[in-house]
Amino acid sequence: MEDGKPVWAPHPTDGFQLGTIVDIGPDTLTIEPLSQKGKTFLAPMSQVFPAEDDANKHVEDNCSLMYLNEATLLNNVKVRYNKEHIYTYVANILIAVNPYYDIPKLYGPEAFKSYQGKSLGTLPPHVYAVADKAFRDMKVLKMSQSIIVSGESGAGKTENTKFVLRYLTTTYGSGQDIDERIVEANPLLEAFGNAKTVRNNNSSRFGKFVEIHFNDKNAVVGGFVSHYLLEKSRICMQSNDERNYHIFYRLCAGASEDIKKKLHLDSPDSFRGHGVCWSLSQLT
């Protein structure tokens, strides 16, 4: 890195800020922020990264950046997000940013058709592209494929998992009602495994492994869901402004009088910590 070159330097609230190097020390760099001309600060050399010449430039694949580092990756994702491009690749990894509102036509029938059979990278980044690649790899290699959905609370893991399921069952379904049944199983799972947190009103408090089964003609014929790592502590206690699993409140609100009597149900406020939850077996 040289004097006068644009760089990303650490910022206490924004993560990184754009600036230029005005002096180089043994272990630190003197940075002048572009937003605060005339002011300088010291930053550890290991925490300063080279920046693109145009900070407003954005690319669909972060690997296309001239300088690929933590700061340029975050800036590229931010610039794209501000333009309603919520998906960005890092090679064959898809980064998704939750917009917290619906983006028109992003997941409609036209999107189903446009991504079907297309190689990764030929169209703008999308969760459908990843789903289609997994299907085509399964078909060509004749091997099971996995899609790992990971992220912090509220990032959109549950919704993107639904998009993958909807894409596969709609695009490569067998025409039987099994396709719809796989997708419609989600609300039931969410009732017993999702809860309100301070960051997300419908936060998945359990891990979920979903299998989609195909026949020898590569059509969807079934599915299997196993869930694990349930946050059991939430059953008996919750943090401030958080809640128990959805099923507890749904039963309190809508269960018949016989079920309420059998399960000793009353208003949620009458339970300390809203601490009651039941298994499916107790309701059958």
Helix content: 25-40%
Question: What is the makeup of the main sheet?
Answer: 5 strands, antiparallel
Strand content: 15-25%
User: In what order do the strands lie side by side in the largest sheet?
Assistant: 4-3-2-1-5
Structural class: alpha+beta
> Whole-number average pLDDT?
88
- Give start-end ranges of low-pLDDT stretches: 275-284
Radius of gyration: 24 Å
In one word, what is the shape? Answer: flat
The number of helical segments is 8
Task: Please tally the β strands and state the result.
Answer: 11
* SSE run: EEEEEHEEHHHHEEEEHHH
* Terminal-residue CA separation: 67 Å
List keywords for this structure.
disordered C terminus; 8 helices; two-stranded antiparallel sheet; alpha+beta; 284 residues; 11 strands; 5-stranded antiparallel sheet
Structure description:
With 284 residues, the protein is an alpha+beta fold. Helices cover 30% and strands 20% of the residues. Helix 3 packs across helix 4, helix 4 (157-171) runs antiparallel to helix 5 and helix 5 (178-193) packs across helix 7.
Write the layout of secondary structure elements.
Blueprint: E1 6-11, E2 15-24, E3 28-33, E4 41-44, E5 49-50, H1 70-82, E6 87-90, E7 93-96, H2 109-115, H3 127-141, H4 157-171, H5 178-193, E8 194-195, E9 203-204, E10 207-214, E11 220-228, H6 233-236, H7 246-254, H8 257-262
Antiparallel strand pairs: 1-2, 1-5, 2-3, 3-4, 6-7, 8-9, 10-11
Helix pairs in contact: 3-4, 4-5, 5-7
Please summarize what this structure is.
By secondary structure, this protein is α+β, with helices and mostly antiparallel strands.
